Amino acid sequence: MPDITEALSNGRLKILLLLGTNMLSSFADAGQVAEGLAKTDMVVCVDLFMNETVRRFADVVLPGTAWLEELGFKVTNTHLYLMERALEREGEARPIYEILRSLASSLGLTDFYPWGRWKTCSMASWISRQPATRRWQACAPLAASHLSGCPASPMPIENSIHRQAD
Questions:
Q1: DSSP letters along 51-116, please?
Q2: Which domain holds residue 37?
């Protein structure tokens, strides 16, 4: 975190995209952070709330979504949990991944978001292809039968079996 406050303070950061954070309450030296934020050319915030950072420094505020408004997953040592959307999004709120995908597309960064086809397969199959689920895949070889037609993970998934401690 000191690197970020230093970059803000010396003016190296010209544009800052904050994804659901209140920097003024998250950093130890809020005064130094505030001085640095005042030096930026643009601050864009994606958030659920109009926190102090948003109110004082945001040039653009994009409404974000809460976890109840998104598909998601959680991985533990023994399970992969798919969390269905419980609430519909309000207004123009969008999840961070949609905002980043749109921004990358607008900037012509075609390889920034390599999961372009994720909607064409089941969410569970897509999740099982991601790096965070490597351990789960090694323990559940039957998952391979559900992977056809889904985009590949951007990182290679190791085919090694993880040994459990005796």
A1: -HHHHHH-SEEEE---GGGS-EEEE-SS-EEEE---SPPPTT---HHHHHHHHHHHTT-TTTS--T
A2: 2-63
